Amino acid sequence: MAINILIIETPTLGDRSYLIHDGLNALVVDPQRDIDRIEHLLLREGLVLKAVAETHIHNDYLTGGLELSRKYSVSYILHKNAEVGFEKFGISDQETFTIGDFAIKALHTPGHTFTHMSYQIIDAKDEVIGLTTGGSLLHGSTGRPDLLGWDNAPTLAQLQFESAHRIVAAVPDEVPIFPTHGFGSFCSATPTTSNSSTIGDQRKINPVLIQDKATYIKNTLQHLDAYPNYFARMMPTNSIGPRPINFVELPQMTSQEVEYQISAGSWVVDLRTRSSYLSRHVIGSTNLGLDGSMASYLGWIYPYDQKLILISDLESDISDACRELLRIGIDHPLASYVGAFENFKEASTLVSVKFKDIKKAINEKQITILDVRQNLERQKSFITDSIHIPFYEIWSRINELPTTGEIWVHCASGYRAASVLGVIEKSGRNPVLIDDDFSNAKSHLNQEN
Hints:
Blueprint: E1 4-10, E2 15-21, E3 25-29, H1 36-45, E4 48-53, H2 65-71, E5 75-79, E6 89-91, E7 96-99, E8 102-108, E9 117-122, E10 128-134, H3 153-170, E11 177-179, H4 199-205, H5 207-210, H6 213-222, H7 231-240, H8 255-263, E12 267-270, H9 274-279, E13 281-282, E14 286-287, H10 294-301, E15 308-312, H11 315-326, E16 335-338, E17 347-348, E18 352-353, H12 358-364, E19 367-371, H13 375-380, E20 387-388, H14 394-397, E21 406-410, H15 415-419, H16 421-426, E22 430-434, H17 439-445
Parallel strand pairs: 3-4, 4-5, 5-6, 10-11, 12-14, 12-15, 15-16, 18-22, 19-20, 19-21, 21-22
Antiparallel strand pairs: 1-2, 2-3, 7-8, 8-9, 9-10, 13-17
């Protein structure tokens, strides 16, 4: 019987989960917290869940593995030494676990974490047909080794190198790999290259396989940038066991109530596109549209102990946002607002420009160019005389910005730049969004270093 591997995408976090089945019996690997997506597939395919496996204790999302295992009374497979506060099936290196007409064989592949496992997927003919690699061997990269603290990073980078070479030595080149991270996830040490790949592909392109160990370790550690603040919450919660989620409709606020909450210090997140935000928005709100990685970036900047209100002109935006936030442990926003933004009295309009507009503006008025990209992006190239404050530091470094003239804000595409417009405006400054791809800065300005 053919073995099927179904992919469950979570693009806003840059992750994948997998449902592997033989037509009847199913295994789930690295499930996200909203398990109803898994259950829908089980029902659609007519499958019986037999086990859940984790490649590692995750840092960038809350798992649904424990809830699935308890709800369906199946084994929850993790490395035998994974320190968790619940019952698990502790698997060892080279150990095999059978699920119907197929099996998985565990490979201990430390590097992203110390107890990281990869799983060979073995069919009834005892042939390896795939390999779930979690945060180990990614498409053109590897998982980052610094999430357990910088003191552990050099050791984990070395282990990551050794694990990658062990993986490719264990299976034929035609075997496809199925990583959990690497589709925009901040768990990736460096950007990844594709949506699918094989062991043979990786031998040709992956730095961990084409560089010597010393070079790989040096380059990996040198190219690690900051990662979202919410990561610090994920592993401890996953180790204890996340609570089952409860989808509830948020209480609705009026526009006046939203404005009062802003004045009281609550976080108000506008889920519309940045163009809609620019056209009219409530002063003091933060724009994180659902057309980008809203949850990752909100989890980076949002203080979890503060009240959170979600606003949009579409009811579906609120429910979509709540699902995304549940994945990173933001379970209960205070309330929502859905309606026309003409109802807000404390409202404002902002403008956007392109990189090509900078030269003319410099000659006609006082502008400051603010670069809110991450440090490594800045090191590669930047606009001469621009100020650099990563977007996640603006809230604490707002006083470094000039109080006169216009603040022209850019990132790589406009999404992160739009997220800081609200705090700059609330401080009494005049922000302008450079809503443009950074590749256009060079062709129009020729001022990069």
